[in-house]
Amino acid sequence: MAMPVTLIPGDGIGPEVVNAAVEVIEAAGVQLQWERVAAGAGAVATHGTPIPAETIESIRRNKLALKGPLATPVGEGYRSANVALRKEFDLYANVRPARSFAGVESRYSGVDLVVIRENTQGLYSGVEHYVDDDHNAAESISIITRKGSERIIQYAFDYVRARHRRRLTLVHKANILKCTSGLFLEVGRGIAAKNPDIDFREMIVDNCAMQLVRNPNQFDVLVTTNLFGDILSDLTSGLIGGLGLTAGANIGKDTAIFEAVHGTAPDIAGKGVSNPTAVMLAGSMLLEHIGERTAGDRLVTAVRETIAAREATTPDLGGSATTRMFTQAVVKRLR
Ligand code: NAD
After folding, report:
1. CATH number of the domain enclosing 315
2. Is residue 112 part of a domain?
3. Which of 48, 131, 205, 230, by CA, is between 20 and 30 Å from 313?
C-alpha cells in the first residue's frame, strides 16, 4: 500500500507549487497516498484557526508532510503556523541546501552550501511581550539549552559525515551574547573535540554574512541558532539565484515536514507564474528521507536539466513560462 503523506497546499502560490511537486513525484515513479489538509491564512478562513486539529492529527499519524508556504500577519495577529508546527512536532533541525544551478544567472558559480539551523529555540521561542500598555517598550527572551544545542550540533556532525561533506562551520555571536550564543559555542567545541575527523570551524555571525557574500566557496555546511540560520539561509538562497530555488527540511526525532524556503509570494499569487522548483526539491528531500533516494536523485536531475536547458523558464529567472509549462517539462524528462 502507498505510504500516506500529509499534504498542506498552504496560501498564496502554495497550492500551485505544491500540486506541481506532487505531479513530478508521481512522474518519478513513487506512489504516495496524499492526505490534503489545511493550514495558514486559508485555514483561518475555513476552520477559524491557522492549524486545525485534523491537520495536527494527520501529521501525527503519518509523521511525514509536504507543505506549501503559510501566510503570517506581520507585527500583529496569530503566531506563525510554521513556528507552531515546528514546536508541536519538535522539528529541531532545519536543513536548507543551496547549490548553484546551470542556466541561472547569479553572482557565483559552484556554490554548494547547507545551512543547518536550530529550529525550536533561540529568539523564536515565542517568549516576548510589551512591557507597558502603550507599547513604548517590548522584550523578547532567547532560550538556548545544552540539550537543544547538543542535538542540533550532533545532527550537523552526523550530516557532514554521512554525506561525505568537507567542513562544518558553527556560526555564533558569543562575543556579545555570552550566555546564549556562548552556550551554543561551548557545546559545539565539546562535540568537535570528539569528532576530530571533521574540519570544524567557528565564525561570528556578522563576519559570516560578509564572508558568504565575498567568497561563499570557503564554506560547506553551517550550523547555527534559529534567527541567524533563518537570515543566513535566505542569504545563501540569494547566492544561487533566489528564493524560488531552495528547499528546506524540518526534521524531528520521528516526524519530518518538507517545504520551500520561500513564502506565499503575494505579488504573483494567482497568476500561475511561480517557480515550483523549491517545493519540487523539497519533494526530493522527502523521497530521500523515506528511502527512495534513486527517485529523489532523478527528480533533482530532471529539475536541474530543465532549468539548464532554459526550455520553460519562469519569470523569476528571466523567462516567460508558466508554472504549468515548467512542470510539464520536468514531467517529460522524468518519463
Ligand atoms: P516571499 O518569499 O513570499 O516573497 C519574496 C519575493 O520572492 C517576492 O518577490 C516573490 O514573488 C518571490 N518569490 C518567492 N517565491 C517564489 C517562487 N516560488 N517563484 C517566483 N518568485 C518567488 O516572502 P515575503 O513576501 O517576505 O512573505 C510573504 C508571506 O509569506 C508572509 O506572510 C510570510 O510570513 C510568509 N512566509 C512563509 C514562509 C513559510 O511558510 N515557510 C516562509 C517565508 C515567508
Report:
1. 3.40.718.10
2. no
3. 230
Give the whole-angstrom CA distance, residue 173 versus residue 114: 20
Give the pairing of strands 221-224 and 64-67.
unpaired
Give the model confidence (pLDDT) of 77-109 as tens digits: 677 888 889 989 999 999 999 999 999 988 899
Dist. CA 264 → ligand 1 center (Å): 4
Gap between the Cα atoms of 324 and 312, Å rounded: 9
Q: Which residues line ligand 1 (CB under 6 A)?
A: 13, 17, 69-72, 82, 243-244, 259, 262-268, 274-275, 278, 316
Q: Is residue 78 part of a domain?
A: yes
Distance 118 CA to ligand 1 centre (A): 21
Q: Whose CA is nearest to atom 39 of ligand 1?
A: 69
173-225 pLDDT, tens digit each:
999 999 999 999 999 999 999 999 999 999 999 999 999 999 999 999 999 99
pLDDT at 18: 98
pLDDT at 124 over 90: no
pLDDT of 274 above 80: yes
Question: Which residue has the CA at smallest separation from atom 8 of ligand 1?
Answer: 265
Residues 38 and 138 in one domain: no
Greatest alpha-carbon span in the chain = 61
Nearest atom within ligand 1 for CA of residue 67:
40
How would you write 193-258 as a 3-class SS string?
HHCCCCEEEEEEHHHHHHHHHHCHHHCCEEEECHHHHHHHHHHHHHHCCCHHHCEEEEECCCCEEE
* pLDDT value for 182: 97
Residues 155, 63 share a domain: no
Examine the pLDDT at 76 and tell me if it is beyond 70. Answer: no
Going by CA atoms, what residue is nearest to atom 43 of ligand 1? 263
Shared domain check, 6 and 68: yes
Boundaries of domain holding 259:
1-105+241-335
**Do 251 and 213 have their domain in common?**
no
- Ligand 1 atom with the smallest distance to the CA of 248 is 41
Statement: residue 243 has pLDDT above 90: no
